[in-house]
Amino acid sequence: MSVKRLTLFFCTMFLPLLLTGCFALPAEAPVLPPPMITQPVERTFYTVPVARGDIRLEANPFALYMPARIESQRFAVDFIPVLGIFVSVGDEVSEGDIIAALDLSEIQQELDSLSPRRVRLNLELELLRERHELAQRLGGSVDMAQRNFLRAELELLERLLSHVTYLNDERYLRATMDGVITSAEVFLEGMHSNSNQTIAVISDQAFSSFVVLGEMAELMNPGDRFVMTLGAVVQEQRVRGWIWDTTTEIIDDLFLMEVVDPADFGFVRDAQPDIEVAEAFLAFVDTPPAPGFDTFGRVHIPLEEVSNVLYIPAATLHRHGERSFVYVLEDGIRTVRDVVPGLEGEGLVEIISGLAEGELIIR
Asked: What architecture does CATH give domain 47-56+304-362?
């Protein structure tokens, strides 16, 4: 074999091995950046101390406003354009006051045209009567056919005028009794009358009470006294009988109430349903608040009370199965402490054991 062929053979066999070995050489380790020194961030805990005091458990049933008498105001006719609604919640009205009106301009125009005609006919009859008396004194006579004709025309006009006056009066929705407006529709352009739609509700507030329905009413007997927090609907957006938005206001003052028998105060009540539901009526012991502020209430019925006990906010107590525990802050460290809870009420929970007064509980 010639030298040239031998050289070519060795290059073909050993050059790939040489190149592979080059790639298999160990790589240099990367240079790491110098370490950064960080300061530990202190954790802030929000705590509340274990306190001592009284805890009261109470029921707070809803109380519905119940005036001595309620009357709904509706138009007697349907599909007539409404001219306007002139009352709002809280307004005091007297019997006969105009609450709303229908847009019957043609009736008013007819009434305006009939009244002058009646005046003219009465004047013509009066002149005819004077002519007749004058003729009698002078020994003459007057044809009375015209008088009979005028009387017949006047009688027909009076009947027509009475009918148009009645129709005109029907335009107006008038209060049927004295009282306070406790519900009222909001007037909208294009509104039409509907005999099934209540325009306003008048309540007789000469004597007002609240009624509690259901199981809680069974805890209340005539003569019992309770305190009650009142609330009111201060703004109510209504569209064609539908309530779109309601804003309520809670009055912080507590009012002393007494359970009464409604039969003793002449309540006018709707027909009762066949289903019997326990009910209790409460009346103000002192002067009731101004009209419009006694729409609904929350009665405070005490059920159980403990005095001079350790307590924590109920939101800081954790439960898992039958276990009850809290997070206690000890020397800046959060620790878990098992506790035995007791009575819970008004957002507080009694601690029977596991904590000492003044210890800091993590919220």
From this structure: Beta Barrel (2.40)
| Angle of helix 145-170 versus helix 105-137 axis, rounded to 10 | 160
CB atoms inside a 10 Å sphere around CB 59: 13
Q: Give strand pairing partners of 192.
A: 81
Q: Give residues with Cβ within 8 angstroms of 157, minimum separation 6.
A: 114, 117, 118, 121
β-strands 333-338, 323-330 pairing: antiparallel
- In this structure, what DSSP letter does residue 81 have? B
Q: What is the DSSP string of 152-169?
A: HHHHHHHHHHHHHHHHHH
> Given a cut of 70, is residue 21 above it in pLDDT?
no
Name residue 143's amino acid.
D
Work out the pLDDT band at 174, boundaries 50, 70, 90.
very high
Dihedral sign of CA atoms 212, 217, 219, 224 in order: positive
Which span out of 82-86, 182-186, 287-291 was modeled with the highest average pLDDT? 82-86
Q: Cβ neighbours of residue 332 under 8 Å, at least 6 residues apart?
A: none
- DSSP class of residue 25? S
Mean pLDDT across 125-141: 78
Q: Give the integer Cα–Cα distance in Å for 96 and 78.
A: 21
pLDDT digits (tens, 9 = 90+) for 299-352: 999 999 999 999 999 999 999 999 999 999 998 889 999 999 999 988 899 999
Nearest CA among 174, 165, 172, 191 for reference residue 107: 165
Which parts of 29-61 are beta strand (E)? 47-49, 51-59
Helices vs strands, H then E, count in the chain: 3, 19
pTM of the model: 0.52
Neighbours of 282 (CB within 10 A): 24
How distant, in Å, are the alpha carbons of 20, 69, 76 from that of 29? 21, 95, 98
Q: DSSP secondary structure string, 128-142?
A: HHHHHHHHHHTT---
